[in-house]
Design a protein that fits this description.
β2 and β3 form a beta hairpin. By secondary structure, the protein is mostly helical.
Length: 257
């Protein structure tokens, strides 16, 4: 019970601090320079520059139709946390809208704004939630299509990114691409600790020899799964191996497998 309470508190810390970082990135870096980072954040930037609609209003109103999708595909628990963050984001955006903005090059604004925003999104996801908007769609794509979360972010936000080229100029669009790419990487780093990993399933009858080669030279973790083939009476050993990308290349070498 105590561990459950501690995890809940930690998740809400992730969500609150992550949401604040997203609002900080929007107000300090993206809005002043017209950088369209994707999602409803990017839409709010476009509407602010084109129609002078306050970003907090755009973020608040846009969440409602997507919350229904969250209930249908991500469950009630996720939706409750999403409701919390989706309302918290426009509040933070409103509260810090008078904070001094970044003064410098647009390229620096796109880089540092993306780092802060990506860190915030990753923390919110790590807390088991999202800030609403297209982040709900990203989580649905990630969950049901089994693709990396960073690719889901780039895929969905890329559609919004086209608005930077249409409503602004080429340079702003290119800066927005840089920003979107960094956001995707920061989301992965935040959730995975910056250590991308691959999994491999190895099928062999050479049990002891292969375990030695995987664990001693490569320092890989190995999970052994046994399956008995009743028809031919043989035992086939399945290995579930978790490795970093560079180790995966060594795993494919004939001397290892």
């Amino acid at each position: 019970m105590k561990n459950l309470t501690n995890n809940t508190v930690l998740n809400y810390i992730y969500m609150i601090f992550g949401t604040f970082l997203i609002a900080l990135g929007i107000n300090v870096f993206f809005i002043p320079y017209g950088i369209v980072s994707g999602g409803m954040n990017g839409v709010s930037v476009i509407l602010f520059h084109i129609l002078k609609i306050s970003p907090d209003i755009t973020l608040f109103v846009s969440n409602f139709p997507l919350l229904l999708l969250s209930i249908l595909f991500l469950g009630k628990k996720y939706t409750v946390n999403t409701i919390f963050c989706s309302f918290l984001l426009p509040v933070f955006v409103k509260l810090i809208n008078n904070i001094p903005v970044f003064q410098g090059d647009t390229i620096l604004a796109s880089i540092f704004g993306a780092c802060i925003t990506g860190l915030g999104i990753g923390l919110v996801f790590k807390g088991g939630s999202s800030t609403g908007g297209t982040a709900i769609i990203q989580q649905i794509v990630h969950k049901y299509f089994k693709i990396p979360l960073s690719f889901a972010v780039i895929l969905i936000d890329g559609l919004v990114l086209l608005g930077a080229f249409f409503f602004f100029d080429l340079s702003t669009g290119l800066y927005s691409i840089i920003s979107l790419f960094i956001i995707g990487k920061m989301v992965d780093i935040t959730q995975m600790g910056g250590r991308p990993a691959k999994t491999a399933i190895v099928i062999t009858n050479q049990t002891e020899e292969l375990i030695h080669k995987l664990t001693v030279p490569l320092y890989l973790g190995v999970t052994i799964l046994k399956e008995k083939e009743h028809i031919i009476g043989r035992i086939r050993i399945y290995y579930y191996v978790l490795s970093q990308k560079k180790q995966l290349l060594m795993l494919k070498m004939p001397s290892i497998v």
